[in-house]
Specification:
Radius of gyration: 17 Å
Number of helices: 8
Strand content: 15-25%
Number of strands: 6
Length: 206
């Protein structure tokens, strides 16, 4: 059984983990993109996330999705959507009912990607919508991963510039981790006994 919620003090005492595999940044079509599509197409479950350049003032424009992250167990592919676009082969993966895509708050991510190219999403799992079945109230990726996997992840790069000419190693590792950890949480939940929250314990939906 999992604890229902975790405190900042408990989080601070945990070890920090990050994606342990190969992280590849894809900016254009080519051999690396072909490898990415082939690898992701072979997966049964992949972690899913997106990143968007933040706007800090009302006068700044609202930016579109900058990065699409898709991760298997050993490899994560970070697709720079502003240069690559929502390629039809990426859309095919996101529409493939045989590949489970696991993320958090996936609805907004999907809508952001559909602004580049319309596709019909299939087999998406939103961790925020299912963790209550295992008795978990917290909904942030950082807290859910701590509760389910027993380690914390760094969020220091979250508000960095995802449209920079070159992504830093810290950005790459952060982006890969966010997708990978969603996959790992789902796999752990699938082999864990359910202990659903009672109705009165379930957080209100926004």
């Amino acid at each position: 059984m999992f604890i229902s919620s975790i405190t900042a003090e408990q989080l601070s005492g945990m070890e920090t983990a990050s994606f342990p595999g190969e992280a590849h940044v894809i900016e254009t079509e080519g051999p690396e993109f072909t490898k990415a599509v082939a690898y992701l197409g072979r997966q049964r479950i992949i972690g899913f996330d997106t990143e968007t350049r933040p706007s800090f003032t009302a006068s700044q424009p609202r930016y579109g999705v900058s990065l699409l992250q898709l991760s298997g167990a050993g490899r994560a592919y970070l697709c720079r959507i502003k240069s690559l676009g929502m390629h039809r082969k990426l859309c095919s993966i996101l529409s493939n009912p045989r590949i489970i895509k696991v993320g958090a708050a996936v609805h907004d991510d999907i809508k952001g990607l559909q602004k580049y190219s319309m596709f019909k999403p299939a087999s998406f799992v939103d961790l925020q919508k299912i963790v209550w079945e295992w008795g978990i109230r917290d909904k942030s990726v950082k807290k859910m991963s701590a509760i389910i996997l027993g380690f914390k992840i760094s969020k220091t790069q979250q508000l960095s510039n995802w449209e920079a000419d070159h992504l830093s190693e810290a950005q790459i590792r952060y982006a890969a981790t966010d997708a990978w950890v969603c996959r790992e949480m789902f796999l752990k939940l699938m082999v864990s006994e359910k202990n659903p929250l009672h109705i009165e314990e379930t957080p209100e939906k926004n």
